[in-house]
Automatic annotation (TrEMBL):
Protein name per UniProt: Glutamate receptor
Species for this entry: Macleaya cordata (Five-seeded plume-poppy)
Lineage per the UniProt record: Eukaryota, Viridiplantae, Streptophyta, Embryophyta, Tracheophyta
Entry's Gene Ontology molecular function annotations: ligand-gated monoatomic ion channel activity
Transmembrane segments: 586-606, 652-672, 829-852
Gene Ontology biological-process entries: cellular response to oxygen-containing compound; response to wounding; signal transduction
Length: 914
């Protein structure tokens, strides 16, 4: 660009609009063409331009006998040669230049075209930075890379890839195209993680080295944006490097379709090399005009006049000729002559070897540009019309996929509809809107012949395993630490990581890197910072998810609930007057008392008819009823059960009573020896209000939280390294160089309290967070590991790991002033109470059924005797239900012996005494 700038500056300085006028004959109009003859695009474009020129000159409806004369120049894919050829072309009084083919050449020649006011109409320069503001005489009859990179970004987003590696030639076309891709990916929360810039004319060794380096990155989605003439060599080298397997994704811009369409005979072996590659082709609607031109092209090939296939750039070149012809025709209708102006200063430079005096300014350049911008006709490529940016309207692409040696079209992309399986010209406005909301493509085939969509990245390989940092804890080693003898990393967190890793649907080679000196707990903030700075790939351990850490790294779903609690010393409670009530909860006391009453009532019912101990005056019976079951507690009851049902109920009741009383005794003994909180600190508020020293675990986030969030002075905080220091500091207290309380995370506190019963938790947990694994920002592994942790939680795997490490001697429960240790809950005895209730009500039901049967027999016997002794043969009068119920309770109240006498044959049944 430095040479181009100097050359353009030279032209702009010398070109002035105050020269003499030169008039071209209206019978012939010169039009230039700049492209590279021996190239994929140039071979098709040359034939297409010649065919279009012949068609224009043979059409009597345009230009009215004026002939277009095309002057072609070969740029040889060189900015320098292209500029020189442009000068030579402009010396020949051309009114417009078709081309150039290269974006780099277009940048240079556009400066010259601006100075001489000659329109430049390119059919192949796709660089989006060729702007109408900078180059007012430049127009594009092909699609801009801004469209193509939007299509490529939509394609990447459709397959849910977040990172890509771009491969491009380091020139204006390559750099600016990838810059457009970066901008489009950013709109969809994706990015280019690495750029492989190929030098112009890079050999196989350079390409191989760059591809080999990219294998270490981990991203496996490649976007190749190069020129059509040398791009295929990249895939050949990639295949040699084992990079065309099912772990890789290869996406190509429209250079690939141009190359394949231009091949005179497609090499099947080459297509097999390209298996699974996906690319874009500029979309041209099907039409009779297009089909006729393809037929004409085949005829030319059969005659040996064409040695190249027809690609889409050939179609654009053909339409460009017609675009220029229509515009020139409109200009000639408005002004009959075509005039050029000599520049006086350039004309005076006859001594210069550059022969700048031959350059002339096209007086009708601005008018011709205005006519070009009004172009509106249907060509081989569809509707030819320009937008405000002087690009073709309604850009669209075919999405192609190489599968088993053939080129398959799996969908379309357009600016209006996005990705769709329906051609954009067949979609109405409503369908276009729905297509953009719900993009769709046909099933694609990928590298290696797989039909499943590749992940597009690998976490690690055997050559470069995942670098996993683990803290080397000194205290609470059960969570994570390094074994000093075997140097193996073990602990609760490591087991969770390994279990989750097995649920991830791919292999994760990894190696642990120990973080910490083994003398004190490491700084966890520094460990997470190492992940953010790419020193390690992940951090595994008891890492609390807090705000400042989530700003620099991605965390998994929490695998352990967590929060801060306060640990304080406890004191003895023997002096409590009501300590005997503490072994049972309120519910337990209520249910136990209810059963005492229930058993007393049921035993009285069962024994009343046959046991004299349960008979007597109403007052005596009530006292017996309510005191009987309580007396069984102390084995002082005077009454014995006689009935079988009563003994059965008593057997179950005594068993229940034995279990409950022994449990009560054990719990009361424990409570009388256990400790309760002795510190004046009862919660977070009293902790903040006091001026006493506070202990915290070294290396933890607790220090910053206490200082920054709770505004506690740093001078009050004492760093403690392990559980022994915890216990010593609390025992010494604030007046003897210790601390009044310790603030730490709940899992650590629970393990500490399981071994030190003289301490307890004051108040409630005052923060809520969790432990998670840290990964680099944007790492897909964080998402997959989160999914695996959720599965572990749902199927009970996390609970099993927790029990393995922390329930070897019984799981620890939170203890504090609001929850009594060793207190007995109803849930522990509900099975026994249920058994006792079932046996009691079963005995009562059997008793009632037997009484009902005896009462029915008694009433029947009574009626028989009354009927036999009475002279009146009429049926006895029926009595009401209330009388029956009354008689039934009188019957039950009778002694068993009296009832048996009633049923003796010689005895006349008498009604029970009232």
């Amino acid at each position: 660009m430095g040479y181009g700038f100097l050359l353009s500056l030279l032209i702009l300085v010398w070109i002035q609009l105050n020269g003499s006028v030169y008039c071209q004959s209206p019978t012939v109009v010169n039009v230039g063409a700049l492209f590279t003859y021996d190239s994929v695009i140039g071979r098709a474009a040359k034939v297409a331009i010649e065919a279009a020129a012949a068609d224009v000159n043979a059409d009597p409806n345009i230009l009215k006998g004026i002939k277009l004369k095309f002057i072609m120049q070969d740029t040889n894919c060189s900015v320098f040669m292209g500029s020189m050829e442009a000068f030579q072309l402009l010396e020949r009084d051309v009114v417009a230049v078709i081309g150039p083919q290269s974006s780099s050449v277009a940048h240079m020649v556009s400066f010259i075209a601006n100075g001489l006011q000659v329109p430049l109409i390119s059919f192949a320069a796709t660089d989006a930075t060729l702007s109408a503001l900078q180059f007012p005489f430049f127009l594009r009859t092909t699609l801009s890379d801004s469209y193509q990179m939007s299509a490529m970004s939509d394609l990447i987003h459709y397959y849910e890839w977040n990172e890509v590696i771009s491969i491009f030639v380091d020139d204006d076309h390559g750099r600016n195209g990838i810059t457009s891709l970066d901008a489009e990916l950013a709109k969809r929360a994706a990015k280019t993680s690495h750029k492989l810039a190929l030098p112009i004319g890079a050999n196989a060794s350079v390409i191989s080295d760059l591809l080999e380096q990219s294998k270490l990155i981990g991203v496996r989605v490649y976007v190749v944006h190069v020129n059509p003439d040398s791009g295929l060599s990249i895939f050949s080298i990639a295949k040699h490097l084992q990079m065309m397997t099912n772990n890789y994704v290869w996406l190509a811009t429209d250079w690939l379709s141009a190359n394949l369409d231009s091949s005179s005979t497609i090499n099947r072996k080459s297509l097999q090399t390209l298996q699974g590659v996906m690319g874009l082709r500029q979309h041209t609607p099907q039409s009779g005009q297009k089909a006729a031109f393809f037929s004409r092209w085949r005829d030319l090939r059969q005659k040996g006049l064409v040695d190249s296939g027809l690609n889409v750039y050939g179609l654009y070149a053909y339409d460009t000729v017609w675009t220029v012809a229509h515009a020139i025709d409109e200009v000639l209708k408005e002004q009959r002559n075509i005039t050029f102006s000599f520049n006086k200063r350039l004309h005076d430079m006859k001594e210069s070897k550059l022969q700048l005096e031959n350059l002339k300014i096209f007086d009708g350049g601005k008018l011709l540009v205005s006519k070009l911008l009004k172009t509106n006709f249907t060509g081989l490529t569809g509707q030819v019309e320009f937008d405000s940016e002087r690009n073709l309207i309604d850009g669209a692409y075919d999405v192609i996929n190489i599968d088993r040696g053939s080129i398959c079209r799996i969908g379309y992309w357009s600016l209006n509809s996005g990705l769709s399986v329906v051609p954009p010209e067949k979609l109405n406005r409503e369908q276009q809107r729905k297509s953009r909301v719900n993009p769709k493509l046909k099933n694609a085939s990928w590298s290696g012949g797989k039909k499943e969509k590749p992940r597009g990245w690998v976490v690690a390989s055997n050559e470069k395993p995942l670098r996993v940092g683990v803290p080397n804890r000194v205290s609470f080693a059960d969570f994570v630490t390094e074994d000093h003898d075997t140097h193996e990393i073990e602990g609760y967190c490591i087991d969770v990581f390994n279990a989750a890793r097995k649920l991830v649907p791919y292999d994760i080679p990894y190696r642990f890197q120990v973080f910490g000196d083994g003398q004190s707990n490491p700084d966890y903030d520094e460990l997470v910072r190492m992940v953010a700075e790419d020193v390690i790939d992940a951090a595994i351990g008891d890492i609390t998810i807090v705000t400042n850490r989530t700003m620099i790294a991605d965390f998994t779903q929490p695998y352990a609930a967590n929060g801060l609690v306060i640990v304080v010393p406890v004191e003895n409670t023997k002096s409590s007057a009501w300590v005997y009530l503490k072994p049972f909860t309120v519910e337990m006391w209520c249910v136990t008392g209810a059963f005492f009453l229930l058993i007393g009532v049921v035993i009285w019912i069962l024994e009343h008819r046959i046991n004299d101990d349960f008979r007597g005056s109403p007052r005596r019976q009530i006292i017996t009823m309510f005191l009987f079951s309580f007396s069984t507690l102390f084995k002082t009851n005077q009454e014995d059960t006689v009935s079988t049902l009563g003994r059965m109920v008593m057997m179950v009741w005594l068993f229940l009573l034995m279990v409950v009383t022994s449990s009560y005794t054990a719990s009361l003994t424990s409570i009388l020896t256990v400790q309760q909180l002795s510190s004046p600190i009862t919660g977070i508020d009293s902790l903040i209000a006091s001026n006493q020293p506070i202990g915290y675990p070294g290396g933890s986030f607790v220090h910053s939280y206490l200082v920054d969030s709770l505004n506690i002075y740093k001078s009050r905080l004492v760093s403690l390294g392990n559980t022994d220091e915890y216990a010593r500091a609390l025992r010494r207290g604030p007046n003897d160089g210790g601390v009044a309380a310790i603030v730490d995370e709940l899992p650590y506190v629970e393990e500490f309290l399981s071994k030190h019963r003289e301490f307890g938790i004051a108040g409630h947990m005052f923060t809520k967070s969790g432990w998670g694994f840290a990964f680099k920002r944007g790492s897909p592994l964080a998402v997959d590991m989160s999914t695996a942790i959720l599965r572990l939680s749902e199927d009970g795997g996390l609970q099993k790991i927790n029990e393995k490490w922390f329930c070897r001697m019984g799981c620890i429960t939170q203890r504090g002033q609001n929850s009594e240790p060793n207190q007995l809950h109803l849930v522990s005895f509900w099975g026994l109470f249920l058994l006792c209730a079932i046996s009691t009500f079963t005995a009562l039901l059997v008793f009632l059924l037997r009484m009902i049967r005896q009462f029915i027999q008694y009433k029947r016997k009574q009626r028989q005797l009354l009927a036999a002794s009475s002279s009146d043969q009429s049926a006895p009068c029926s009595t009401g239900w209330s009388k029956v119920v009354y008689n039934f309770f009188d019957f039950i109240d009778e002694k068993e012996e009296a009832i048996k006498k009633i049923f003796k044959p010689s005895t006349n049944p008498q009604p029970p005494a009232s």
